[in-house]
Amino acid sequence: MSDLLRPVVRPRRLRTTAAMRDLVAETTLEPRQLVLPMFVREGASEPTPISTMPGVVQHSRDSLRKAAAEAAEAGLRGVMLFGVPETKDALGSGATDPDGILNVALADVAAEVGDALVVMSDVCLDEFTDHGHCGVLTPEGVVDNDATLARYAEMAVQHARAGAGLVGPSGMMDGQVAVIREALDAAGHTDVGILAYSVKYASAFYGPFREAVDSALQGDRRTYQQDGRNAREAVRELLLDIDEGADIVMVKPALAYLDVLRQVADVAAEQGVPVAAYNISGEYAMLEAAAANGWIDREPAILETLTSIRRAGADMILTYWATEAARLLRDA
Ligand code: PBG
What we know:
- The protein has helices at residues 18-24, 61-73, 101-113, 145-162, 176-186, 207-212, 232-244, 258-271, 281-292, 298-311, 322-331, and strands at residues 34-41, 48-49, 57-59, 78-84, 118-123, 166-169, 193-200, 248-252, 275-279, 316-319.
- The chain is 39% helix and 16% strand.
- By secondary structure, it is α/β, with parallel strands linked by helices.
- The protein has a single domain (30-331), classed as Alpha-Beta Barrel (TIM Barrel).
- It has eleven helices and ten strands.
- It binds ligand PBG.
- Ligand PBG binds at residues 122, 124, 126, 134, 170, 206, 209, 221, 280-281.
- Ligand PBG binds next to loops.
């Protein structure tokens, strides 16, 4: 009979020292796996703090270039740009104006960092529309899928022209990846890839982002973003996007959807496609708020959060902590 007070199997042996723990660690977290999302505001001469996301700003064109250079210096391999235009209208005209803020900012950053970073762009109309929706509306006020596709195609080509290496359609319109791929190829941008927001849920955790882009949205996005009760639907969206030509697929939000991320990562691995996850504004804000109150140890909590997203299957993570986390990892 075994002696219950003297276990034979002792998993603790592999936890005895830091060296032993490093030796058997299953998950890596490296600066090259992190992408920094950044906001740039048209007409701004100084960076403007975003109160709902302490530590994150709406950049001026100058401060954006500087932050991109710092991101490269810290060892990141990518940045994702969002534009905040001075004026908005029903069609989101600023999104396809070659002199619009996102297009000029993409060119600025591409000139600043060259090939050191993959410059990524958000292909979506919500920052540019006066109603705040991700697409154009029918006379009845419904988001018009197919009319929006034409806007996305034009927007993506302009981003490619401005210097984006990956365009990121985030509006959850059906067929958006296919139409963008075709438009990029027709314009000669065969080397520009698509980071598809394939699995994007309607989420309360986007709240702080809405301030970050001065969103005009009333209501919600439940007719186009996914329902949080569904996971099978995520696999369907994933397979469609891969079929339409997505180069990298993304799951968003990350933390409330780690189970979905795992399922998506398993299917994407079979399909040979890399997976990104977006650690979104509300996830950032929650941890920052707890840390500011002294309720949580900020730096280890950041690294534990990012590690959990990697462990769930993300090859890369979009996170507002990217530059700081890269420095923490480098100094560790
Ligand atoms: C749409 C877009 C959103 C985010 C990224 N792209 C907002 C939304 O879908 O409502 C959210 C990012 C975040 O919350 O950090 N352009």
